[in-house]
Design a protein that fits this description.
heterodimer, A: mainly alpha, 2 domains, two-stranded antiparallel ribbon, 2 strands, 66% helix, flat, B: mainly alpha, Arp2/3 complex 21 kDa subunit ARPC3, two-stranded antiparallel sheet
Chain lengths: 275, 203
């Protein structure tokens, strides 16, 4: 019953590595680029290059690999089920059939589709967790705000939207602690969350959800008062105590990202896709 | 266009709950079907639409979508067209259904209540059956339609993008969509009633 242990999203591990010290804008842009490249990759070679690159990043950042992967634990069973799901149900005409039983048919196309999708999920997970592990919330906010500023010109309240996203990330852990307390309190009253058929299990959501949502809304009201009391305004005329400054390290990082994108784009073009 | 502090904070916190339900797997309820679970992760989005209007519904939906794209619970969510795009509509549709059904009930019940509640005046609002119907039915409908929006659009996009064969989508839609719809409808009613009590003022 340790909910907070497996939550790595929105957690920041302070450090002094080269990656920690990069400008947040560099990191956000780099992660966005990596994600786009991952979505474009369809070959094993491209994923192999990405694996080496991302592995190197994790090593340089000094974050324990086990910690970076911990958040995956609750997802594993779903991933395995989905892999089998793709293997047996994804069909394309003319693909090699491995075996055939009733309506199930395992084909080469299904296998590759399963692999492709699982690889994408794993890499997306690791890359985004990596970003929040190496970047503090304040830096992440400043970076995103500065990057999204141009959206103001087309009338989007970009700073306010970033603030919303940051509140969401910040509150995941706080609400997780609250959730843990609620569940323990209900268990102390005799609710057995892991027992019963699915209707009984479903009924047990109510004594958890109601206090969770009401508690969250109470917190929200307090936060609204606190922000109003400090006259928060998101957008125009807001200045920063610390302004972001690009350094030489950021330019080298940009150069490395360019080389990496070059390699991945070349492999995407020249190596055979999985399916 | 600018957002009020209230909209920023409520969207953020509801987004946090959606993410929390995802990372703890609490938003997945085991049901006896092949894929193994129904989701209630979209409940915060429906609540955002019902309680705070379309803008909060839209932003909460975007956070929920962004999260399910970045930390996918099912592989086809690694495609933003499947994970983010459909989620933008959940809160907006919930709001529309809530607002319209509330208006419709008000219009229909006005002639009856105007004759019966003449003496009791404003008191009829708190103890008559009209009050209950007016509170419960819109939430029930908003929850159901919000959930249906999620099911139909996500599976529709997944099929259109070629991740799922149409017959699989339809069976998931029926096996998962229906329990999700019922659960979402009931939870919306219960949660809205509960949350209304801690909110400062109701206009």
């Amino acid at each position: 019953m340790e909910l907070t242990k497996n939550i790595t999203l929105g957690v920041y591990l302070p450090g002094k590595s080269k990656i920690h010290n990069l400008d947040p804008r560099t990191k956000i842009l780099a992660v966005t680029l990596i994600i786009i490249l991952l979505l474009l990759s369809r070959s094993y070679v491209a994923f192999a290059f990405s694996a080496i690159f991302i592995g190197a990043l994790v090593i340089i950042s000094g974050i324990p690999a086990g910690y970076a992967l911990r958040g995956l634990k609750p997802m594993l069973p779903v991933l395995v089920i989905m892999w089998f799901f793709q293997l047996f149900l994804f069909k394309s005409p003319g693909a090699t059939v491995y075996f055939n039983w009733w309506i199930f048919e395992a084909t080469a196309a299904g296998l590759h589709m399963g692999n492709l999708i699982i690889l994408r999920v794993l890499f997306l997970f690791i890359v985004t967790t990596f970003l929040t592990l190496t970047t503090s919330v304040v830096n992440l906010t400043d970076g995103l705000e500065s990057l999204l500023k141009p959206l103001r010109m087309i009338g989007l309240p970009s700073q306010e939207l970033v603030m919303t996203l940051v509140i969401a990330l910040r509150f995941v852990l706080i609400l997780a602690e609250e959730l843990e307390k609620i569940m323990k309190a209900q268990m102390a009253r005799g609710v057995a969350f892991d027992r019963g058929n699915f209707i009984q299990k479903t009924k047990k959501i109510f004594p958890v959800f109601l206090p969770l949502f009401i508690g969250a809304f109470k917190r929200a009201e307090e936060l609204i008062v606190a922000m109003d009391a400090r006259s928060y305004t998101g957008g125009k005329g807001r200045t920063k105590m610390k302004t972001l400054q690009m350094s030489n390290a950021d330019f080298s990082a940009a150069a490395i990202m360019l080389i990496y994108s070059g390699i991945i784009i070349t492999t995407i073009i020249f190596t055979p896709p999985m399916i | 266009m600018s957002l009020s502090v209230r909209k920023i904070v409520i969207s953020g916190i509801l987004g946090a709950i959606a993410i929390l339900l995802g990372v703890t797997r609490l938003g997945f309820i085991p049901v006896p079907t092949p894929a193994g679970h129904a989701t209630i992760m979209h409940i915060p989005v429906i609540l955002g639409g019902v309680l705070e209007g379309p803008v909060v519904g839209l932003i909460t939906g975007a956070i929920f979508g962004l999260f399910s794209f970045l930390q996918p619970g099912a592989p086809f969510f690694a495609d933003p067209l499947v994970s983010i795009f459909p989620r933008l509509f959940i809160g907006v549709i919930s709001y529309l259904v809530y607002y319209l059904s509330k208006r419709a009930i008000d219009l229909v019940s006005r002639p009856i209540s105007s004759t019966s509640s003449k003496e009791s005046g404003t008191l009829s609002r708190s103890n008559g059956s009209k009050y209950k119907l007016n509170m419960i039915l819109p939430c029930l409908l908003a929850g159901a339609f919000g959930s249906a929006t999620n099911t139909v659009l996500v599976l529709g996009m997944a099929t259109w993008r070629g991740y799922l064969p149409p017959e699989v989508s339809i069976s998931i839609g029926v096996l998962h969509g229906l329990p999700e719809l019922i659960l979402a409808a009931i939870l919306t009613v219960v949660l809205v009633q509960g949350i209304q009590r801690v909110r400062p003022t109701e206009e």
